[in-house]
Design goal:
Layout: H1 20-23, H2 27-30, H3 42-61, E1 71-73, H4 77-88, E2 101-103
Parallel strand pairs: 1-2
Length: about 110
């Protein structure tokens, strides 16, 4: 049996955007509570939005809806911020308040 477009599943692996501590190395010296868990830099925020716009176009062309998606993310702050920025850039998919970013701890 040949898989049709409707039978296929897709997995996107997206790396977090640019880290604050990469753009501003002095952050590591000042941060004590989040050492190793840097937020996104302004560039990282733009990168997250860019990924969301790309995904929006791809998903729209294939008639995907919110119900077709599961969004998982590392619990690191920069990863959650990347996920949030990408999801906020989705325009063709109606994302309700019930849509969740599921933390993946492995």
């Amino acid at each position: 049996m040949t898989a049709t477009e409707d039978d296929r599943q897709y997995l996107f692996v997206i790396r977090h955007g640019d880290r604050w501590d990469y753009s501003y190395p002095s952050w590591k010296k000042r941060s004590t509570s989040r050492l190793g868990d840097s937020p996104l830099s302004p560039l990282g925020m733009r990168q997250a939005s860019d990924v969301g716009r790309f995904l929006d176009s791809w998903l729209y062309e294939r008639n995907f809806t919110e119900k077709d998606m599961t969004w998982m993310s590392s619990p690191f702050l920069r990863c959650i911020q990347t996920s949030n920025g990408a999801i906020n850039a989705l325009r063709s998919i109606e994302i309700s308040s019930e849509f969740k970013i599921l933390p993946e701890y492995s």
